[in-house]
Design goal:
Blueprint: E1 3-8, H1 12-23, E2 28-34, H2 37-47, E3 51-55, H3 63-70, E4 75-80, H4 85-93, E5 98-101, H5 106-117, E6 122-123, H6 125-133, H7 149-159, H8 164-171, H9 175-189, H10 194-203
Parallel strand pairs: 1-2, 1-3, 3-4, 4-5, 5-6
Helix pairs in contact: 2-3, 6-10, 7-9, 7-10, 8-9, 9-10
Pfam families: GerE, Response_reg
GO molecular function, one term: DNA binding
InterPro entries: CheY-like_superfamily, NreC/VraR/RcsB-like_REC, Sig_transdc_resp-reg_C-effctor, Sig_transdc_resp-reg_receiver, Tscrpt_reg_LuxR_C, WalR-like
């Protein structure tokens, strides 16, 4: 199945860059572009994309309002230059299924789209770490099936905001092996996604 994507950003060079990255994926295609939020909502309702990538600061409707209007109809990933907690909280509250900084890089952009299609929420690691550091620590709940030493090592790297590719490189293991370990960690700690893994690691004192 090919994931159909709509780009909403008032900067043409950003749209061109995202299109080049996403159209290069065998399972993704960009079906439309909008330079303002009002047009993005119109195109989304006409083209019915699987995923909308919406910049926050756009003429007309901003990306947060676009998210509010479209989140019930499709998956919206908010992409922004501005690393502000207020934006993150509002985007997620309005139903965004991802929050990416534009400097996150192409690999994370592709990963965010795939995560959205899988029902997960991916947040830029830089943002995730800062948000999770604010969590109040609680005594670690006992796990019925404790993490292995390798799984604990990977959970800590996830909590520090590492991507799967970076974890694979740092531990000299394959990307597939990293994904397998992350799947096992999610099951053991009861996390829906890597954000949940990071939350577990921070709240239980596995990282400081």
């Amino acid at each position: 199945m090919t994931t159909r994507i709509l780009l909403a950003d008032d900067q043409e060079d950003v749209r061109i860059g995202f299109r080049l990255i996403l159209d290069a994926q065998p399972d993704m295609t960009v079906i439309g572009e909008a330079a303002d939020g009002t047009r993005a909502v119109q195109l989304a309702r006409h083209l019915r994309p699987d995923v909308v990538l919406a910049d926050i600061r756009m003429p007309g409707l901003d990306g947060l309002e676009v998210t509010r209007r479209l989140a019930a109809e499709t998956r919206v990933i908010v992409v922004t230059t501005f690393d502000l907690d207020e934006y993150v909280h509002t985007a997620l509250r309005e139903g965004a299924c991802g929050f990416l900084l534009k400097r996150s890089g192409p690999a994370l952009l592709v990963e965010a789209v795939r995560a959205a299609m899988a029902g997960d929420t991916l947040i830029s690691p830089q943002v995730t770490v800062r948000l999770l550091q604010g969590l109040t620590r609680k005594p670690p709940p006992p796990l019925d099936d404790p993490l292995t030493a390798r799984e604990l090592e990977i959970a800590r790297l996830v909590a520090r905001g590492h991507t799967n590719a970076r974890i694979a490189g740092e531990l000299t293991i394959s990307l597939g092996t990293v994904k397998t370990h992350i799947g096992h960690i999610q099951r053991k700690v009861g996390a829906a996604n890597r954000v949940g893994i990071a939350a577990w690691a921070w709240s239980t004192g596995q990282v400081t």
